[in-house]
Amino acid sequence: MALCFDVLIIGSGLAGQAAALRLARTHSVALISKRTVEDSASSWAQGGIAAVLDNRDSIEAHIRDTIAAGAHLNDARATRFVIENGRRAVEWLIEQGVPFTRHEAGYHLTREGGHSARRVIHVADTTGLAVQNTLTGQLRQQSRITVLEHHIAIDLITGGKLGLSVDRCYGAYVLDSRSGEVLTIGARHTLIATGGAGKVYLYTTNPDTSTGDGIAMAWRAGCRVANMEFIQFHPTCLYHPQAKSFLISEAVRGEGGLLLLPDGSRFMPWHDERAELAPRDVVARAIDFEMKKRGLDCVYLDISHKPAAFLSEHFPNILARCLELGIDITRQPIPVVPAAHYTCGGVMTDLRARTEIAGLYVAGEASCTGLHGANRLASNSLLECLVFAEAAAKDIVEQPAGELPELPAWDASRVSDPDEEIVISHNWDELRRFMWDYVGIVRTTKRLQRAKNRIRLLVREIDDFYSHFRVSHDLIELRNLVVTADLIIRCALKRRESRGLHFSRNYPESDARARNTVLKRPQPTALRRPR
C-alpha cells in the first residue's frame, strides 16, 4: 500500500525546508531526511547569503561579479533571475525570524572573495545553522508536513520505468534505515533537494550526507545532467588531525585574513592581483601549486592582526573550534588546505526548477540552473536554494492536481542479505581516494582516463551487489556516489579547455566561446535490475 501526498520533497536542507513551508498552506507534503531534519549541508554553511541590500551596491554589480567568478559560463537569464529575487528571499527569512547579525547602521554585511561590494548578510559565522534552526522550528509545527527522518530515497518512480505512455514522476521508493522496510511513496509532484556530492572525494568540507543521491536518481530516471566537472574546492579547510571537515569561512579573508607560507610570506599577490579576495578557484589552485612546489602539508591563514574583540564578534564558532584544538586565532595563523566543497553542476532545470520529466523538480546544489557557471561565487548557494525553492513551490501550486496511477510495491523477493558488507566500505574508500588523486584541483587527460577505467570496474561490481542483496543505507549511498563520480569524470573528459574550476594541464587555455558540458539522458534504468 503506497503512502500518497501532494508533494514529496527529498532532502531537508534549506531548499527542501523553504519549499515545504511555502507549500504547506495548500498541499500535503512529505519531507524525507536521511538523518534528522537539522542535519544537512545547509546547516554547515558559515559565510552567509549574498544579496543586494545596500544602496551603494547594485543588481548589475552582483551579476558582473557572479559571471566573472563563473568564467562567463553562467546562464544570463538564470543569473539575473536569482539576483533580482535576492532581496525578497532574504526578507522572507527575516520574516521567519532568522536573527541576522546587526550593527549600528542596520544589518551587518560582509565581503567575500570575488565580490566587489559588501553584500553578504550573515548570522556571525554560523549562518546556515541559524537559518536551518529557524525554519526547522516552524516546519515541525506544520500539520500538513509529514517529516520522515532516517529515511533515504532509493529511486524515483516514473512513467518511463513503469512502462506508461506518459513519462511523469510519481514519487519514489524510500528505505526506512532503522527498520529496513522499503516504502512506496506516491506524489503528484516530487522535488529533489538532496544537495551535492562532496563525499565522492577523500577530503571535503561537506557532511557525510553529501553523496550525490538526487543527481544519481534523476540521471537514472532519464534527466540530463550538465557541468559536473566543476567541483569547487574550498581554499581553506582547517588542517588538523582531530578536525573533520571543518571549514574556515571565506569571510575570514573578506575581513582581512592573509594567506601565508610557513616562513610568514604572502603568496596570493604572485598569483592574482586580487590576492586573498580572488574567487575560490583561483585561490584553491594557488594553494595547491604552492603546496606541491614546496612539499608543504598546508599553508596558513592569518587574521591575528585584527582585535580579539572583533574576531570574537564576527567568528565566534571558528574561534572556539580552533581554541579546542590548541590554535588561538587571535595570536597565531590557522593551518589550512583546500577540500572539495560544492558541486556546481547537476540536474538541468529551468527557471521554475522543472526538469524534463513532468512533475519532477530540483532545487539547490543538486541542480544546474546556470547561475554558477564554471565556479560558484561565494554565498550565492543559499541564495539559489531560496529563490528556486520559491519558484518550484509557485509552479506546483499553479499545476492541476492530477491522478496517481497504481504504484507497484518494492520487489525484494529475489534478493538476500549481503554476506560481505566489507565490500561496500572497501569500494567507498577506493572511490574517494582515486577521485582525489585523479580528478582533483589540477587534472590531466591521463589521470582522468585512469579514473574512467577504475570507475567502470566499480560500477559493475556495485551493480552486481545491488542486484543480489537487500538494499541498505550504505549501499544506496555508494551506488549513488559511483554514478556521480562517473558523471564528473565523463564531463571532465569532454571539456578540452581550462575554465573556472576545471584546470587541465593538457588544455591550459580557455576556448573563446564558453559552452556547457551536457550529458544526454539515457534510457531510464529499471526499478530493480533482474538477477
List keywords for this structure.
531 residues, alpha/beta, FAD/NAD(P)-binding domain, Flavocytochrome C3, Chain A, domain 1, Methane Monooxygenase Hydroxylase, Chain G, domain 1, 3 domains, seven-stranded mixed beta sheet, four-stranded mixed beta sheet, 22 strands, globular
Give a concise summary:
It contains 16 helices and 22 strands. The chain has 531 residues and is an alpha/beta fold.
Topology:
Elements: E1 3-10, H1 14-23, E2 29-33, E3 49-50, H2 59-69, H3 76-84, H4 86-96, E4 102-103, E5 106-107, E6 109-110, E7 120-121, H5 127-139, E8 145-149, E9 151-158, H6 159-162, E10 169-176, E11 182-192, H7 213-221, E12 225-226, E13 231-238, H8 250-254, E14 258-260, H9 268-271, H10 280-294, E15 299-302, H11 308-314, H12 316-324, E16 334-343, E17 346-348, E18 360-362, E19 367-368, H13 381-398, H14 422-438, E20 442-443, H15 445-468, H16 473-494, E21 503-504, E22 518-519
Parallel strand pairs: 1-2, 1-11, 2-8, 11-18, 17-19, 20-21
Antiparallel strand pairs: 3-7, 4-5, 6-7, 9-10, 10-11, 12-17, 12-22, 13-16, 14-15, 15-16
Helix pairs in contact: 1-5, 1-13, 2-3, 7-16, 14-15, 14-16, 15-16
